[in-house]
Amino acid sequence: MPAAPAPTRADAEALDRADPLARFRDRFVGLDGSAYLMGNSLGPLPAATEDRLAAFTREGWGGRRVEGWEEWLDLPTRVGDRVGRLVGAGPGQVVVGDSTTVQLHKLLHAGLSGRPDARAVAVADDEFPTDRYVVDGVAADRDLEVRVVPLDGCDGPVAADAVARTCADGAVGVVVASLVRYRTGARADMAAVSAAAHAAGALVLWDLSHAVGAVPLALDADGADLAVGCTYKYLNAGPGAPALAYRARRHAHLHQPIHGWFGQVDQFAMDATYAPQPDARQLLVGTPPVAGLLAVDEGVALHEEAGVDALAEVGRAQMRMVWDAATAALLPLGVALATPADPARRGQHLALRHPDARALVDALADDGVVADHRAPDIVRLAAAPLHTRFVDLWDAVEGIRRHLAA
Fold first, then answer.
1. Structurally, how many domains does the chain consist of?
2. pLDDT (tens digit per residue) in 10-23
């Protein structure tokens, strides 16, 4: 297939004029004319969130004080169901509350509790560090072997055939893997990977941190078992915002091990004996982070208003344009594209591989383009359709070309 023609800046400007989501950029604080391409690390602040948190501080906590719990008590499940609709999960299967790492720890123990005969836990190769640390720690606690699932090529996603091989002897209880790989943006086939694990008697615990709010998700339809994901990236819920935890309804018998009063059937009865909630509320532990949950709520509201289909369409267009621009301008200068070429197999950031990646990111910053470096040799350019412009992506590629050609 012949290469696509190199897009010009005029092409990018035309795409921006036709972008049905362009109006949302003005709904964020502090972007002005900057090219902010780190929405896959920390999304910018929505103006509505700034207003919501100010009102909460002034009128809620400051005005109602303890009476405010009448409105805040069910936020983890109310916001959880709203996130659930965004990721293709029915009600009562998602809660929002703890950090991603804590959610991973809880759900990995929960998944393994359903496989008392398991002798191993598996994790995708080059997985995000916190996932690997959690797997190693839980495996040590349970005296389990840790197996590494090889990825599809050095930059590709976790694949069904690799999971099948890793789990072939029936010893693996849970496979931990990111749906969208944090380094390269490679996206796995959730349905195929889940089916391969299930055929070998294993569950899959998905890390959706680079997928939630970035790519369309259908957890229930794709046979997902368990999932976690942060909300401060594409959902724009702010630094330290609480993470989601998903447990499929068919796995309601899998209980996370931290027994706290928010997971208790009747928490205000103050019973001495713990009795777990029958739905995703069992995944809760202690007092929820109210301000963070309100920020998640506002971030989800923006995505609902934009619409999942429109976000996906614009996201694909942005990735296609930046891919074509990088292919034409950067490959001749020794840059490799680490993100898969297949649109169905990539998330919402383009990863460029070059030995001087750190210096390139610093040079882009001098040009007013905020991009991301991942050691040792990756430059990441995030395309978040709610606030990223096509010209932002084009300017980033052109900036890299210019610095390499100098």
1. 2
2. 999 999 999 999 99
CATH at residue 36:
3.90.1150.10
> So which residues are the catalytic ones?
128, 207, 232-233, 380
Per-residue pLDDT tens digits for 278-301: 999 999 999 999 999 999 999 999
Dig out the tokens for 327 from the structure: 């292919």
- Distance between CA atoms of 236 and 306, rounded to whole angstroms? 14
CA-nearest of 217, 269, 228, 265 to 127 is 228
Q: What does the alpha-carbon distance between residue 380 and residue 363 come to, in Å, rounded to a whole number?
A: 14
Distances (CA, A) of 245 to 180, 205, 236, 279, 292: 17, 10, 17, 12, 15
Nearest Cα to Cα of residue 211 among 182, 240, 183: 182
Find the helix packing angle between 308-330 and 390-405, rounded to 10°.
Answer: 20
Confidence band for 5, pLDDT divided at 50, 70 and 90: confident
Indicate if the alpha-carbon torsion angle 358, 364, 366, 368 is positive or negative.
Answer: negative
Q: Say if residue 258 is in the same domain as residue 125.
A: yes
86-103: pLDDT as tens digits: 999 999 999 999 999 999
Tell me the pLDDT of the chain averaged across its residues: 96
Give the domain range for residue 23: 9-46+307-405
